[in-house]
Amino acid sequence: MFDDKIEFGKLFGIPIVLDYGLILLAVVFGYSYFTSGNLATISYGLLLFVGVVISILLHEFGHALAGAYYGVRASHIELHGLGGLCHFTRALPPERTTNIVVLLAGPAVTLILWLVFKGLSMMAYELPANAGFVTGVSRIGNLMSHLSIINFYLLIFNLLPAHPLDGGRSLAHFISKWAGYDRAMRFVAYTGTLVTAWLVWEGLQGNTFLLLIALFLFMSNLSVLDTHGGPRWRREG
Asked: 38, 58 in Cβ contact below 8 A?
């Protein structure tokens, strides 16, 4: 059913599909740990990677739950090298509120995860270091804190005004009430190019992964411009 992808299992009846690009996430979040040569450090990196994947999965499941509320089932959830994607069996209803709620349901889950991991890290740090029922208390606290920070950045990233991010798409639906759908899509595509420029600037400081994300966003926003009218100089060409 899923060519060149792996069906990992199901979550509440929704197939979970893994793209081979997911290896990229393992490299980004775990490379320094996996190459340390220390078993404890490698284990920490593996737990961190699993935590990130679960965080992304729950984010997408938030979209799926919101879609189900409006009567549209998710066909499957795909996890890939740049995050995840919730696929629906059919298009969502055209109402702006419906689309905005479904789009922002994912970031809402990420917000909850950020707060939960932050709370767990604080609890772990408050446990006595020699607690008999906990081994490696400080390491658990570090892992929870690390996942909290990652979910915070995932939340901010997903709310950026760019296609195809949740923030950009929900913003387009919101302003389409006054600007019209095509103009709203173009507006977000233009802001998306500014986001891309910012990511390039940050990526040039030494984060290659940000450069890859910037390229992905640039191509996505350029495609939106082509589809929804685009700048005048492109239409005249």
From this structure: no
Give the strand pairing for 14-19 and 5-11: antiparallel
Distance, in Å, from the CA atom of 143 to the CA atom of 81, rounded to the nearest integer, reads 21
So what's the pLDDT on residue 161?
96
Identity of residue 133 = F
Distance CA(115)–CA(155), nearest Å, equals 11
Query: Which pTM does this prediction carry?
Result: 0.87
pLDDT digits (tens, 9 = 90+) for 155-201: 999 999 999 999 999 999 999 988 888 899 999 999 999 999 999 99
So where are the chain's domains? 1-159, 161-237
List, in sequence order, every beta strand (DSSP E) within the chain: 5-11, 14-19, 74-80, 83-88
For residue 10, the cross-strand partners are 15
Q: Using one digit for the tens of pLDDT, what is the confidence trace for 107-116?
A: 999 999 999 9
Find out whether 64 and 77 touch, Cβ atoms under 8 Å: yes
Q: Give CA–CA dist 53/68, Å, rounded.
A: 22
Rounded-to-integer distance, Cα 63 and Cα 126, Å: 34
Q: What Rg value do the Cα atoms of the chain yield, rounded?
A: 20
